[in-house]
Structures are given as C-alpha cells and as structure tokens.
C-alpha cells in the first residue's frame, strides 16, 4: 500500500492491487502499415483507455520495455484542449488525478525492464504530488532526475505576476543501480564556436586544452619547432609529452612561439554528459511542437501543445539502445513515435515504439495514426510545399473492444 498526504488528507492510501474486468483489443488490419520490408517486427498503436492498454500489454511485454515516456494531462483545471484536463471532484483538485496516475504507474513499472526508466512530463500543478507518488511507487532511491525544460521563450505580457517558462520531466528507474546512460552529441553551436583548425590538421577541427597541471605537476623543458624553450608544471609525463609532440598533437600558436596547448580532435569527442537543465534553444520550445504539426497537417489547432520532436529525441537518447522498446501511453499526437522513427533513421537503429491513446475527439485515428502514417509514408510539408521522404517502418493498429 502506498501512503501519502494529499490536500490535507493524512495517510491517504492508494490501492496498489489494480484489477480491471475484461481486456480485449482487436487488430484493425486495414490500418496496418508495411513499408519496411527488411523488418518483420511491428510498432504498435493501441486505441483505448490506457488502463486497459497497459493490462493488454502485460501478457507480452512484462519486464521488456526499456524506456517509458508519458505526457499525461497536467490537471490545469480547464477543458480548452481537444482532451480533458480537469480532474476536479468533491472539491479536491488533486485526489482524482493522483488515483488516475497511481493505477497506471503501478502497471507501467511492471512493464519496465530491470534497467528501464520512466520519464513523465508535468508542470507545477501536479509536479510535487507526482514526485511523492513516484517516490512511493518506484522508491525514492530510484529517482534519477527532475529535468527542467524551458518551454517558453518569453513571459506573457498580458498575465499578472510571474510567468512560468518551464516544464518538468520527472525521471525514475525501476532499479537505478542497473541503468546505463548515453552521452549526447555535442551541440552544433558549441562545435562551431569551440572546434577550429588553424593549422589545417588533416584530422579535422580540434579544440585546445591546457597542458598545465596545478596539482602534482611534472616539470621539465620542452622545445617548440621554432626553438623556444618552455619549462612549466606539465600535466603529462616526459614520455607521454614526447608522444604528443611526435603525433603533432601540440599547438605552438600561430607563429610557433605561443603558449603550447594540446589539440583535442572533434572526431575523438565522446559527446557531452546530460544535465537536468534543458534549454529551449537546444531542443525547441513548446510552440515549435505546434509548428511541426502545422507542417504535417496544415493546421496547428488539430492538437494543442504537442511536444517538439527534438525534445523527445533528446530525452530518449540519454537512455535508449539501438534495439530498445519505447512505450508512451499518453501518446497524444504521436510525437514519441516520430522521435523513435527519426532516431532509427539517424543511426540505423531497430527501436520499436508502442503508443497508447484513447479516442476522445477521434484523436487516436485522426491525429496519432494519421501523423505516424505520414511520417512513415512521406508527406508534403504544408508550410513550404516540399515533399518529406517517409521513414520506412511497420505499424499495427489495435482497438479496445
Ligand atoms: C498532454 S497529451 C500528450 C501529448 C503528446 N506528448 C504529444 O506530443 O502530442 C495527453 C494525451 O493523453 C490522452 N489521454 C488522456 N487520458 C487517457 C487515457 N486514460 N487513456 C489513453 N489516453 C489518454 C489525451 O487524449 C491526450 O491526447
């Protein structure tokens, strides 16, 4: 039993034994997509309430999902989107939302592999309740990070008070000791500003790195090709320094008399370690997600506030392997599916996605499925009229019956 204090109610107990009556999903063969003939496996789209979808997946996918990303309704208390975002009952704003999340997160945990992780998008309406709930379900020890994403560029001038320009992505592991992390590719602007090639080294651009060491240095003389002698507290042993010089890995400045530094080549970069601060300029802002939908559908109002694909790729890249199965059970417009397909295209991966979406306002069929179909088959960009090539993949569509 989980125990929490919510809305002043002390020791609130969630039921952790979730039972649903009948779970039936039927495949709609007419919606199947087969554009990757070299692959016999399928991505899945499940139309139905995700409580049932998670139960349905249990048979085949228990302990098999590597990464779960979800973007549930934030419980803003408004219903101005194409989906419900108001869980108010009996005067308690948070209780029903937490019960709703609790039952689904318990099932989600069972689907995760031992080294699996879950990422949950949220804003300040429920962030703090969600953190407590996740501590309860996944255990505080398995908290990995609270990513802070700058989703807006500037404040809304028509609003009073402090504009929030951030959202959050809470991340938990099933077992943190088993999780592995990938480094991220270096940012384009960082490469441009940092890596240069003033000596036209055939190995390509490099950044300079100090050769001095403050602690336990080794002092000896080195001589530049122009004959200038440098006696400094070096970072390298005499032997290793000789190897660096031999391999043309020391830069002696434009005229050969500058302070020597080590060349670190771009091709050798191991990428950058992820941090929990995600700047909009690096992964796009909220409005970019809407622009992406406009390019695909010609209408950004078809679905409000989809996440930008770049943000999804950023988050997934930290954890996924080339063959990971990725689940999103609040799929919305299907951004996670597009991100997985693009990651596969970028590195020849064989990742698979499973998306679950109910059919309120026909979202699953007319937005989620339609978007995936266009990304897989190719489509005309509605903003510039150019054809965007498809990313070959296979998809099966199941509907709750
Ligand atoms: C915030 S949106 C997700 C947006 C998505 N990340 C994107 O980029 O488009 C949440 C979605 O979850 C769906 N949803 C809400 N409750 C659900 C449920 N019980 N089962 C399945 N889908 C649900 C809503 O219809 C909505 O499309």
Short overview:
The protein has 401 residues and is α/β, with parallel strands linked by helices.
Please give a structural write-up.
With 401 residues, the chain is α/β, with parallel strands linked by helices. The protein has two domains: 2-185 and 273-400, Rossmann fold; 188-268, no CATH class. It has helices at residues 50-61, 95-111, 127-138, 188-194, 238-246, 280-283, 286-297, 309-319, 335-347, 363-377; strands at residues 2-6, 9-14, 25-27, 33-34, 43-47, 65-70, 112-122, 143-150, 166-173, 206-209, 218-223, 229-234, 250-251, 261-265, 277-278, 325-328, 352-357, 378-380, 387-389, 394-400. Strands 3, 4, 5, 6, 7, 8, 9, 15, 16, 17 and 20 form an eleven-stranded mixed β-sheet that branches. A three-stranded antiparallel β-sheet has the order 10-14-13, with no helix packed on it. A two-stranded antiparallel ribbon has the order 1-2. Helix 1 packs parallel to helix 2 and helix 8 (309-319) crosses helix 9 (335-347). The longest helix is centred in the first third of the chain and has 17 residues, at 95-111. The radius of gyration is 26 Å and the shape is elongated. The relative contact order is 0.18. Bound molecules: S-adenosylmethionine (SAM). The site of S-adenosylmethionine has 17 residues, from strand 17.
